Amino acid sequence: MMGIILCLTWFVLLGGMLIIAFRLIRPEILNLMRLRRERRDRAHRGFAVVGPGVDVWSDPAKVARLKQLGDMMSAISVRCCRSGWLTGAEYLIPELCRRAIASGLPQPWGDDELTLSEAEAITQLSMDSGAWANLDLDSDEYVPIDPFPIPREYLEEIPHDVSI
């Protein structure tokens, strides 16, 4: 009998703490969800929100670096996949760069590979421009994008047997 009362007491206390924690944390979670949604929406309108308050279009030098970055990403897409701008390249190339730098090894993609020196150069350009590049098919121009987190359908295209 005493065990049941003790269990019920713990259950009530734990439940009360969870309710209090949920009420305290919930506004933060909702705020994070709102920020993610705004970030995604702004990226689709042509703004980079890679970090707080980063707007690539306000700096002509960043716009030029974004174009250079997009051209490099496109050249890699052509070489590896025989495609000018493969759908998903805006997610795949940044992830391949991250893996190459983390492992110190080239990363296979399609018929070729992304070398470590390419990964370092592209990553530096993305840091200089404040975003990664995505080709806007309507305007045929590169627009800034934050590729992380990577959508699952693109992650499945990257070989997983390569060291990360």
Structure report:
The chain has 164 residues and is mostly helical. Helices cover 60% and strands 10% of the residues. It contains five helices and four strands. It has helices at 2-44, 60-81, 89-103, 116-129, 152-155; strands at 107-109, 112-114, 132-136, 141-145. A two-stranded antiparallel ribbon has the order 1-2. The chain has a two-stranded antiparallel sheet with strand order 3-4. Helix 2 runs antiparallel to helix 4 and helix 3 crosses helix 4. The radius of gyration is 22 Å and the shape is elongated. It starts with a helix and ends in a 9-residue tail after the last helix. The model is unreliable at 42-53 (pLDDT under 50).
Order of helices and strands: HHHEEHEEH
Pairing-aware structural class of the strands and helices? mainly alpha
Lateral strand order in the biggest sheet: 1-2
Taking all Cα atoms into account, the compactness measure Rg is 22 Å
Strand content: 5-15%
Q: Distance between the terminal alpha carbons, to the nearest Å?
A: 55 Å
Q: Report the sheet with the most strands, covering strand number, pairing sense and barrel closure.
A: 2 strands, antiparallel
Mean pLDDT: 76
Low-confidence runs: 42-53
Shape: elongated
> What's the total number of strands?
4
The tally of helices reads 5
In percent, how helical is the residue content? Answer: 55-70%
